[in-house]
Amino acid sequence: MNNLEIPADSAPEFTSTSETSLLVVIVDSNPSQKMLRDNPHVLTHCIDSVIAFANSHLMQKAQNKLAVMACHSKTSEFIYPGPNKPLDVRQIDGQYEVFTAVEKTIKQNLAKLLATEKSTLVTESLLAGAIAMALCYIARIQRTKPPGCVLNSRILVVTGSGDSASQYMNYMNVFFTAQKQGIVIDVCALDQHLSLLQQGCDITGGLYLKVPQLQGLLQYLLWVFLPEPPIRQKLVLPPPVKVDYRAACFCHRELIDIGYVCSVCLSIFCKFSPICTTCHTVFKIPGPLAVKPKKRKIKL
Ligand SMILES: [Zn+2]
Ligand SMILES: [Zn+2]
């Protein structure tokens, strides 16, 4: 058989050298997270763990790619690679220059971002927006990659904030976009259980873990999230927990078990409304259910 006839899915052995793994880490740096309000030094610990984890990803293969984002209260920014030109670093204590550059760039850009934070207003982290930015970044890398190169992308969200149903629509949009693009979303919850992000992991085939102890964050990151998705099937990882698949109603953004769904646009409402607020379809007010009279059996 001619090599050209092999479909792209059954990748032959020789392309394995041109496989690249792109990891985008989203770190929640919002100062209004409960764990940071209790002890602001936790952020340093988290960033150190994420840097060590990111460098381990780069260490696995020379072709591996990395991007790190900080998700803040009002904005989400790429802190590696930063907006400025790459740092010029010399080797320190025999450490690989790329690792030094990753550490310095992340710390510098994060410090800049934290310094711009002035208001003490408590706002939620814009995680859905950060994931959307990560998806755009991955799409750009995918478009500009050299021909013949296979790019496996995944996103890791490290956050201590709770997920709010007010971003429900944005979350669902990014989850299904990621699923369509074949991008895995992993979530590492530091403080609270996150039911919406857990749905995202389930939809995209990623892993969800709420770390039992924050002190051991690096160990959890290395054991659970460092292996690439195809290898994970062969490992004994924390068993999947039951996913809470409740949806948020479009009227109050609250998670509901049972509600009304618009038959035209599939919007969800907790109470019946005669006009769908999304697509403006008019519905009849439901009357009492008509009960069919039982047919009497005729004895023969
Ligand atoms: Zn409602
Ligand atoms: Zn509708």
Lay out the secondary structure:
Layout: E1 19-28, H1 34-38, H2 42-60, E2 65-71, E3 76-80, H3 97-116, H4 127-144, E4 150-159, H5 168-181, E5 184-189, H6 195-204, E6 208-210, H7 217-225, H8 229-232, E7 247-248, E8 255-256, E9 260-261, E10 268-269
Parallel strand pairs: 1-2, 1-4, 4-5, 5-6
Antiparallel strand pairs: 2-3, 7-8, 9-10
The structure holds zinc ion (2 copies).
Gist?
This is General transcription factor IIH subunit 3. This protein is 33% helix and 16% strand.
Description:
It is a single chain. The chain is α/β, with parallel strands linked by helices. The chain folds into 2 domains: 214 residues, von Willebrand factor, type A domain (Rossmann fold), CATH 3.40.50; 50 residues, no CATH class. Helix content is 33%, strand content 16%. A 6-stranded mixed beta sheet has the order 3-2-1-4-5-6, with helices on both faces. A two-stranded antiparallel ribbon has the order 7-8. It has a two-stranded antiparallel sheet with strand order 9-10. Helix 2 runs antiparallel to helix 3. The longest helix is centred in the middle third of the chain and has 20 residues. It is elongated and about 100 Å long. The N terminus is likely disordered. The structure holds zinc ion (2 copies). One zinc ion (ZN) binds next to loops.
